[in-house]
Amino acid sequence: MTWIFDAGSRDRTAANAIFGLAVDLITISASPAAPIRALGRSSDTKPTSTAKKLGKLTDTHIAEHWHGDQYQLLDFGDGRKLEQFGAVRLDRACPAAVEVQPADVEQWSSALRIDQRTAADLQKRLPETWHVRHGAICLQLKLTPFGHVGLFPEQCVHWHWLSERGRQLAKVGARPLALNLFGYTGGSTLALAAQGVDVVHVDASSPAVNWAKQNAALSGLQDCTIRWIVDDARKFVERELR
Predict the structure, then answer these.
(1) Dist. CA 6–CA 213, nearest whole Å
(2) Helix pair angle (12-28, 233-241), 10° resolution
Protein backbone atom coordinates (compact mmCIF):
# COMPACT_ATOMS: atom_id res chain seq x y z
CA MET A 1 0.00 0.00 0.00
CA THR A 2 1.57 3.27 -1.07
CA TRP A 3 0.49 6.88 -0.50
CA ILE A 4 2.24 10.05 -1.66
CA PHE A 5 1.87 13.33 0.25
CA ASP A 6 2.75 16.49 -1.67
CA ALA A 7 4.86 19.17 -0.02
CA GLY A 8 1.82 21.03 1.23
CA SER A 9 0.23 18.13 3.09
CA ARG A 10 2.90 17.29 5.62
CA ASP A 11 0.68 18.25 8.50
CA ARG A 12 -0.76 16.03 11.21
CA THR A 13 -4.36 16.26 9.97
CA ALA A 14 -3.46 14.96 6.52
CA ALA A 15 -1.22 12.27 7.98
CA ASN A 16 -3.94 11.10 10.35
CA ALA A 17 -6.39 10.83 7.47
CA ILE A 18 -3.96 8.59 5.59
CA PHE A 19 -3.20 6.48 8.66
CA GLY A 20 -6.91 6.05 9.34
CA LEU A 21 -7.52 4.93 5.78
CA ALA A 22 -4.61 2.49 6.06
CA VAL A 23 -6.13 0.87 9.14
CA ASP A 24 -9.42 0.39 7.29
CA LEU A 25 -7.71 -1.13 4.26
CA ILE A 26 -5.56 -3.46 6.33
CA THR A 27 -8.69 -4.66 8.07
CA ILE A 28 -10.15 -5.59 4.68
CA SER A 29 -7.00 -7.25 3.38
CA ALA A 30 -3.38 -7.52 4.42
CA SER A 31 -2.26 -7.85 0.78
CA PRO A 32 -0.32 -5.00 -0.89
CA ALA A 33 -2.69 -2.79 -2.88
CA ALA A 34 -1.96 -0.91 -6.08
CA PRO A 35 -1.69 2.86 -5.68
CA ILE A 36 -3.60 3.28 -8.93
CA ARG A 37 -4.75 1.09 -11.81
CA ALA A 38 -2.49 1.26 -14.86
CA LEU A 39 -3.62 3.40 -17.77
CA GLY A 40 -6.06 1.69 -20.12
CA ARG A 41 -4.84 -0.47 -22.96
CA SER A 42 -4.14 1.57 -26.08
CA SER A 43 -6.10 0.75 -29.22
CA ASP A 44 -3.00 -0.33 -31.13
CA THR A 45 -1.75 -2.75 -28.47
CA LYS A 46 -1.46 -6.23 -29.91
CA PRO A 47 -1.20 -8.86 -27.20
CA THR A 48 1.14 -11.78 -27.80
CA SER A 49 -0.37 -15.24 -28.05
CA THR A 50 0.66 -15.84 -24.45
CA ALA A 51 -0.98 -12.60 -23.29
CA LYS A 52 -4.17 -13.45 -25.17
CA LYS A 53 -4.26 -16.83 -23.47
CA LEU A 54 -3.60 -15.33 -20.06
CA GLY A 55 -6.81 -13.31 -20.14
CA LYS A 56 -7.32 -11.97 -16.62
CA LEU A 57 -4.07 -13.43 -15.35
CA THR A 58 -1.92 -10.65 -16.77
CA ASP A 59 -1.87 -7.49 -18.83
CA THR A 60 0.30 -6.54 -21.80
CA HIS A 61 1.35 -3.48 -19.75
CA ILE A 62 3.56 -5.83 -17.70
CA ALA A 63 5.56 -6.80 -20.78
CA GLU A 64 5.73 -3.15 -21.86
CA HIS A 65 7.47 -2.17 -18.62
CA TRP A 66 10.14 -4.89 -18.62
CA HIS A 67 13.09 -5.22 -20.98
CA GLY A 68 13.06 -8.73 -22.40
CA ASP A 69 16.54 -9.53 -21.08
CA GLN A 70 15.44 -8.71 -17.52
CA TYR A 71 12.07 -10.45 -17.13
CA GLN A 72 9.64 -12.34 -19.33
CA LEU A 73 6.52 -14.38 -18.68
CA LEU A 74 7.15 -17.07 -21.29
CA ASP A 75 4.19 -19.40 -20.84
CA PHE A 76 1.75 -20.80 -18.31
CA GLY A 77 -0.72 -23.62 -17.83
CA ASP A 78 -1.51 -26.73 -15.77
CA GLY A 79 -1.26 -24.61 -12.65
CA ARG A 80 2.28 -23.44 -13.43
CA LYS A 81 3.99 -20.37 -14.91
CA LEU A 82 7.24 -20.23 -16.87
CA GLU A 83 9.30 -17.11 -16.20
CA GLN A 84 12.69 -15.80 -17.26
CA PHE A 85 14.46 -13.69 -14.61
CA GLY A 86 17.62 -12.47 -16.32
CA ALA A 87 19.58 -15.62 -17.18
CA VAL A 88 17.50 -17.84 -14.87
CA ARG A 89 14.41 -19.69 -16.12
CA LEU A 90 11.97 -20.90 -13.47
CA ASP A 91 8.85 -23.06 -13.49
CA ARG A 92 6.72 -22.10 -10.50
CA ALA A 93 3.22 -22.74 -9.19
CA CYS A 94 0.41 -20.50 -10.48
CA PRO A 95 -3.06 -21.47 -9.20
CA ALA A 96 -4.69 -19.01 -11.59
CA ALA A 97 -3.40 -21.04 -14.56
CA VAL A 98 -5.13 -24.31 -13.63
CA GLU A 99 -7.77 -24.21 -16.36
CA VAL A 100 -5.44 -23.64 -19.33
CA GLN A 101 -2.76 -25.68 -21.09
CA PRO A 102 0.81 -24.56 -21.84
CA ALA A 103 1.24 -23.05 -25.29
CA ASP A 104 4.81 -24.26 -25.91
CA VAL A 105 5.82 -27.36 -23.95
CA GLU A 106 9.38 -27.36 -25.32
CA GLN A 107 10.21 -24.08 -23.59
CA TRP A 108 9.69 -25.68 -20.20
CA SER A 109 12.39 -28.34 -20.54
CA SER A 110 15.25 -25.98 -19.66
CA ALA A 111 13.55 -24.50 -16.58
CA LEU A 112 14.10 -25.35 -12.95
CA ARG A 113 10.82 -26.57 -11.46
CA ILE A 114 10.26 -24.91 -8.10
CA ASP A 115 7.86 -25.85 -5.33
CA GLN A 116 8.05 -25.70 -1.55
CA ARG A 117 9.31 -29.27 -1.30
CA THR A 118 12.20 -28.81 -3.74
CA ALA A 119 13.14 -25.13 -3.33
CA ALA A 120 15.77 -25.78 -0.65
CA ASP A 121 17.55 -28.40 -2.79
CA LEU A 122 17.34 -26.30 -5.95
CA GLN A 123 19.03 -23.39 -4.20
CA LYS A 124 22.28 -25.32 -4.73
CA ARG A 125 21.75 -25.31 -8.52
CA LEU A 126 21.15 -21.59 -8.77
CA PRO A 127 23.46 -18.63 -8.21
CA GLU A 128 23.33 -17.54 -4.58
CA THR A 129 22.06 -14.20 -5.87
CA TRP A 130 21.51 -12.61 -9.27
CA HIS A 131 20.09 -9.29 -10.42
CA VAL A 132 17.57 -7.70 -12.72
CA ARG A 133 17.08 -4.03 -13.54
CA HIS A 134 13.91 -2.05 -13.94
CA GLY A 135 14.49 1.54 -14.96
CA ALA A 136 16.63 3.23 -12.35
CA ILE A 137 16.48 0.38 -9.85
CA CYS A 138 18.49 -2.81 -9.51
CA LEU A 139 16.92 -5.73 -7.64
CA GLN A 140 18.78 -8.62 -6.09
CA LEU A 141 17.07 -11.96 -6.58
CA LYS A 142 17.59 -15.21 -4.71
CA LEU A 143 15.51 -18.32 -4.30
CA THR A 144 13.86 -18.60 -0.88
CA PRO A 145 12.70 -21.83 0.77
CA PHE A 146 9.13 -20.84 -0.16
CA GLY A 147 9.93 -20.61 -3.87
CA HIS A 148 9.89 -16.81 -3.99
CA VAL A 149 12.72 -14.78 -5.55
CA GLY A 150 12.21 -11.37 -3.92
CA LEU A 151 10.27 -9.87 -6.80
CA PHE A 152 6.65 -9.81 -7.96
CA PRO A 153 7.11 -8.78 -11.62
CA GLU A 154 3.53 -7.54 -12.08
CA GLN A 155 4.30 -4.75 -9.60
CA CYS A 156 6.26 -3.01 -12.38
CA VAL A 157 3.03 -1.29 -13.46
CA HIS A 158 2.79 0.30 -10.01
CA TRP A 159 6.46 1.27 -10.00
CA HIS A 160 6.00 3.02 -13.32
CA TRP A 161 3.05 5.04 -12.03
CA LEU A 162 4.81 5.96 -8.79
CA SER A 163 7.94 6.99 -10.67
CA GLU A 164 5.96 9.18 -13.06
CA ARG A 165 4.04 10.78 -10.19
CA GLY A 166 7.26 11.50 -8.31
CA ARG A 167 8.77 13.03 -11.45
CA GLN A 168 5.72 15.26 -11.96
CA LEU A 169 5.89 16.55 -8.39
CA ALA A 170 9.62 17.22 -8.73
CA LYS A 171 8.98 19.38 -11.81
CA VAL A 172 6.84 21.77 -9.78
CA GLY A 173 9.38 21.98 -6.99
CA ALA A 174 7.55 19.76 -4.52
CA ARG A 175 9.38 17.58 -2.00
CA PRO A 176 6.84 14.80 -1.53
CA LEU A 177 6.76 12.16 1.17
CA ALA A 178 5.50 8.62 0.59
CA LEU A 179 4.33 5.95 3.00
CA ASN A 180 4.90 2.41 1.71
CA LEU A 181 3.29 -0.31 3.85
CA PHE A 182 4.12 -3.99 3.23
CA GLY A 183 7.23 -2.63 1.49
CA TYR A 184 8.81 -6.08 0.95
CA THR A 185 12.14 -5.83 -0.92
CA GLY A 186 11.66 -2.21 -1.89
CA GLY A 187 10.55 -1.99 -5.53
CA SER A 188 7.99 0.76 -4.90
CA THR A 189 10.18 2.48 -2.34
CA LEU A 190 13.12 2.70 -4.73
CA ALA A 191 10.99 3.77 -7.70
CA LEU A 192 9.92 6.76 -5.58
CA ALA A 193 13.33 7.46 -4.05
CA ALA A 194 14.90 7.59 -7.51
CA GLN A 195 12.66 10.59 -8.24
CA GLY A 196 13.61 12.44 -5.05
CA VAL A 197 10.64 11.34 -2.95
CA ASP A 198 11.26 10.84 0.79
CA VAL A 199 9.90 7.43 1.75
CA VAL A 200 8.81 5.68 4.93
CA HIS A 201 9.18 1.96 4.20
CA VAL A 202 7.38 -0.41 6.59
CA ASP A 203 7.46 -4.21 6.61
CA ALA A 204 7.11 -6.72 9.43
CA SER A 205 9.95 -8.89 8.09
CA SER A 206 13.45 -7.86 9.12
CA PRO A 207 15.04 -10.00 6.34
CA ALA A 208 12.79 -8.29 3.76
CA VAL A 209 13.76 -4.83 5.00
CA ASN A 210 17.47 -5.75 4.93
CA TRP A 211 16.96 -7.08 1.40
CA ALA A 212 15.36 -3.76 0.43
CA LYS A 213 18.35 -1.89 1.86
CA GLN A 214 20.66 -4.05 -0.27
CA ASN A 215 18.56 -3.20 -3.33
CA ALA A 216 18.88 0.50 -2.47
CA ALA A 217 22.67 0.15 -2.39
CA LEU A 218 22.72 -1.80 -5.67
CA SER A 219 20.62 0.97 -7.23
CA GLY A 220 22.91 3.73 -5.96
CA LEU A 221 20.08 5.06 -3.79
CA GLN A 222 21.54 4.28 -0.37
CA ASP A 223 21.90 7.99 0.45
CA CYS A 224 18.28 8.84 -0.35
CA THR A 225 15.93 9.82 2.47
CA ILE A 226 14.33 6.46 3.29
CA ARG A 227 13.15 5.62 6.78
CA TRP A 228 13.38 1.83 7.12
CA ILE A 229 10.97 0.45 9.73
CA VAL A 230 10.53 -3.18 10.80
CA ASP A 231 7.02 -3.29 12.20
CA ASP A 232 3.57 -4.74 11.66
CA ALA A 233 1.82 -2.36 9.26
CA ARG A 234 -1.41 -2.19 11.24
CA LYS A 235 0.37 -1.63 14.55
CA PHE A 236 2.52 1.05 12.94
CA VAL A 237 -0.37 3.11 11.56
CA GLU A 238 -2.45 2.69 14.73
CA ARG A 239 0.48 3.89 16.81
CA GLU A 240 1.01 6.88 14.50
CA LEU A 241 -2.65 7.81 14.90
CA ARG A 242 -2.25 8.17 18.66
Answers:
(1) 24
(2) 150
pTM metric for this prediction: 0.78
The sign one gets for the Cα dihedral 140, 144, 149, 152 is negative
Coil, helix or strand for 104?
A: coil
pLDDT tens-digit readout, 46-93: 444 444 444 444 445 677 789 989 999 999 999 999 999 999 999 999
Determine the Cα angle at 129 with ends 114 and 180, to 5°: 90
Largest pairwise CA distance in the chain: 58
| Dihedral (CA of 165, 167, 171, 175) sign | positive
Cβ proximity of 150 and 211 under 8 Å: yes
80, burial (CB in 10 Å: exposed 0-12, middle 13-18, buried 19+): buried
Does the CA dihedral 66-32-126-89 come out positive or negative?
negative
| Residue 226, helix vs strand vs coil | strand
